[in-house]
Design a protein that fits this description.
The protein is an all-alpha fold. The chain has five helices and two strands. Helix content is 69%, strand content 3%.
Length: 147
């Protein structure tokens, strides 16, 4: 295949002065460019596969953290929580109720590192906290009619 290549006058003069084969240099440069493009394309495909695999581990990790939180939430609600604590958790799932000093949940969550115990806030998107809150709310909803 024949292709035209534009060279500025000054460069064309220098190429002729040094008797450089434009065709050979262009072919070498184009082969390098094609190889680089192919490598980049393979890398992108590989990275997409890695990203897909890693997204799966995030889901697995989140699911495990939710389950861990759910287990701890059930244990806390059944064995440690007071009526006020359970009611507050069910009514204020954002964790504002944790500002109460002496709350049994603060110490438990401090050990789980799902809470900033200095400001007594929780991350509502944290999978552990979601699982914990879900379990505690389930216990509250089940026991409330019996109180």
């Amino acid at each position: 295949m024949k292709t035209s290549i534009y060279l500025p006058d000054e460069l064309a003069e220098q190429v002729r002065a040094h008797d450089i084969s434009i065709s050979a240099v262009a072919q070498t440069a184009l082969r390098k460019a094609v190889n680089a493009a192919q490598f980049q394309q393979r890398a992108i495909i590989d990275i997409e596969a890695v990203a897909a695999r890693l997204r799966g581990t995030v889901d697995d990790e989140d699911r495990q953290q939710f389950e861990d939180g759910h287990t701890d939430g059930l244990a806390w609600a059944r064995n440690l929580a007071t009526v006020t604590e359970l009611r507050n958790l069910a009514q204020e799932p954002d964790g504002r109720f944790l500002e109460l000093r002496g709350h049994t949940l603060v110490e438990l969550l401090r050990t789980q590192q799902s809470i900033d115990t200095d400001s007594a806030t929780v991350d509502n998107e944290d999978p552990y906290w979601k699982g914990f809150r879900t379990a505690a709310t389930e216990v509250w909803e089940a026991v409330q009619p019996l109180l």
